[in-house]
Amino acid sequence: MLDVKDLKVGFPVRQSGEKAVLMAVNGVDIRLEKGDALGLVGESGSGKSTVGKTILRLNKNSSGRIVFDGQEISKMTSKEEMRYRQRAQMIFQDPHSALNPRMTIFRSVAEPLILQTKIRGGALKRKVQELLEIVGLQRQFLYRYPHELSGGQKQRVCIARAIALNPELLVLDEPTSALDVSVQAQILEFLKSIQTELDLTFLFISHNLAVVRHICNKVAVMYLGQIVEQGDTEDVFSNPQHPYTKALLAAVPLPEINQKRRSEPLHGDIPSPLNLPRGCFFGSRCREKIVGLCDQSSISNTELPSRHLVRCIKVARERELAETQAEMPIPLKAE
Ligand code: ADP
Ligand code: MG
What we know:
- By secondary structure, the protein is an alpha/beta fold.
- The chain contains 11 helices and 12 strands.
- The strands form 2 sheets. Strands 6-7-8-3-9-10-12-11 form an 8-stranded mixed sheet, with helices on both faces.
- Strand 9 and strand 10 (226-232) form a beta hairpin.
- Residues 48-49, 173 line the site of magnesium ion.
């Protein structure tokens, strides 16, 4: 359904008075099949939101391709683009700023229907009521304003608006992290249920690995604008290979991760994308770094079974070694 190839997004910025380009996304490949929920994880500043927004054409990409249902989105005609804007929707972290404070809930949810369909009058009201019902809000909310709703209720309104035009792809950017802990679980369960019921494909952006483990069948770990590891959630969580993934997992209490195999949690901060390290971008914080190798080479992906991809030269070397050993002839037993 969605194929992102070598995506790069740069923002023009000023650095001590000089013009510079900040590479927020620096060569991302991701692929979503229909019905997938792909979790995009990584620390703040790693480029997750920029990937999501660029897929929805809220940002321009500097290079690379985004192909939706066989069609490259930058080459769509305006009519095709309008259709794409129905089929792919985004849900943002902060439901408060996503809603117009001067619009009633009815108006907010009805807006995409008014703009993109011919539904009007009683049919429109029924459709909006139906959408509110799907997201678990009673009809008494119809003519209320955002400030009269709780954070969780506002996020439900945003979800109702996003699903109004029967989209196929939802990009959810930290959809629960601005909400009270007590309602986060409810909204997550609800999102999980509509994914199945409405046959949706999710790109689920989150820095919370436990949440991704619960919601997503695939996961991509992002660091400084690149995907360092991706694969089926089960594979990546039970057998993390990249030192960054291992460090992220070390910081979350997940019962299925063997305590003995846990590595140290992360230290220090993510470097600025304006000052990218040489070689492997994770090099400056990596506990397994091999000086003279990791800082010199350009790093490509190593593929492990079941499309588990790891961008680490140490993993690549270990794999090569294992393969050459496997190919060595078995010595004949002496008589
Ligand atoms: P994440 O969502 O993972 O926290 P973002 O995609 O928001 O990461 O940001 C990635 C990097 O790009 C950060 O260094 C951020 O400061 C920078 N960035 C994001 N948007 C812009 C912009 N519009 N202009 C300049 N820099 C930006
Ligand atoms: Mg973000």
